[in-house]
Amino acid sequence: MLLIDTDPGLDDAHALAMAFGRMPADELIVTTVAGNVGIDAVTRNAQHLVRAIAPGIPVARGAAAPLLGTPVEAPHIHGADGIAGFAWPDTDLGPLHPSHAAEVIIEAAQVHGKDLAVVALGPLTNLALAIRLEPGIIDQIGRVVSMGGSPSGRGNASVTAEFNVFADPVAAEIVYSTVRNHTVITWDLSLDNRFTRSELDGFWAGTTAAASTLRAIDAHRQSTEPQYDTASTFGRVDPLAMAVALDPSVVTAEDEHAVLVDTTDGLARGYTAVDWSDSVGERPKILIPRAIDRDRACALLTL
Predict the structure, then answer these.
(1) How many Å apart are CA 161 and CA 167, to the nearest integer?
(2) Which among 177, 184, 165, 99 is positioned nearest to 138, based on CA atoms?
């Protein structure tokens, strides 16, 4: 069972499509969290993607704000609606799951146990809430793969911090300090593994519902964003996280250390500090991939 906690979001859409095209609907759960844009928009986008690619997957709405402070969003990257103004062909979204995302995570952990993998593509608010409500789930969930952090300090939301952790550093600290069997796909890995326009076009050149949906979204983005249209390489950080979740053998080299998060509101807010010397004691160690099998990753990114 795969639970995807997400804030779609353009590259979230690609990551979701990867899972939707490979797994049965009854083995997937989607929960949403405010991140790239607000909770209403990301939830609508998740519902649209489910409707277009894999009807029947439950979608549960989650946190509208970080655990502390005000929401941090990125409409300058994803557009006000999170999907660059793309006009969905079908406006019938269907019902949402009646429970909050944190409750859905708890229930999934209790029902599926070690058979449950959680892929967190946005801020970690929902997972942190679930842990605070029911701490026992950290021993029940089989595996967590999250996208977040920049141990090198090459930030994309600030000078030092990656967006997902910057948006809710308190939630990230809760998850990083408690969850075992946790793999973190960092912004650094994405910077080291960018893709050409030819590779991107190949990812959605097929005839599946997933490919045609992502192809339409990408064509719209090219037609409306000159900088995107003329770029030579592209990051795919959420799809890389999904690739590792679907096939851990994509990773060819990794480190394993505790990671601490700066939860203050200063210059280092959201900075992810790796305990390279293993000096902090009982804190869980996190797997941090630093190299991937690019051919295998490209095969998984292809819809």
Answers:
(1) 9
(2) 177
Report the CATH architecture of 2-301: Alpha-Beta Complex (3.90)
Burial 76-100 (b: 16+ CB within 10 A, else e): ebbbebbbbebebeeeeeeeebebb
pLDDT of residue 282: 86
Res 10: pLDDT:
86
- Contacting residues for 18 by C-beta, under 8 A, at least 6 apart: 210, 239, 242, 243, 246, 300, 301, 303
Bridge partners (DSSP) of residue 184 are 146
Locate 248 and state its tokens: 């851990």
pTM score, two decimals?
0.96
Listed in sequence order, the residues at least 6 apart from 134 whose beta carbon sits closer than 8 Å to its beta carbon are 106, 109, 110
DSSP H helical ranges for 21-96: 39-53, 75-78
Angle between the N-to-C axes of helices 294-301 and 10-20, in degrees from 0 to 180, rounded to the nearest 10:
90
The CA distances from residue 89 to 51, 85, 213, 216, in Å, are 10, 12, 10, 10
Rounded to a whole number of angstroms, the distance between the first and last alpha carbons of the chain is: 20
With cut-offs at 50, 70 and 90, classify the pLDDT of residue 88.
confident
Supply the DSSP symbol for 177. H
Domain ranges of the chain: 2-301
* Cα 7 to Cα 125: distance, rounded to the nearest angstrom: 11
The candidate with the shortest Cα–Cα distance to 147, out of 95, 188, 104, is: 188
In whole angstroms, give the CA distance from residue 11 to residue 49: 12
212 — pLDDT class (breaks 50, 70, 90): very high
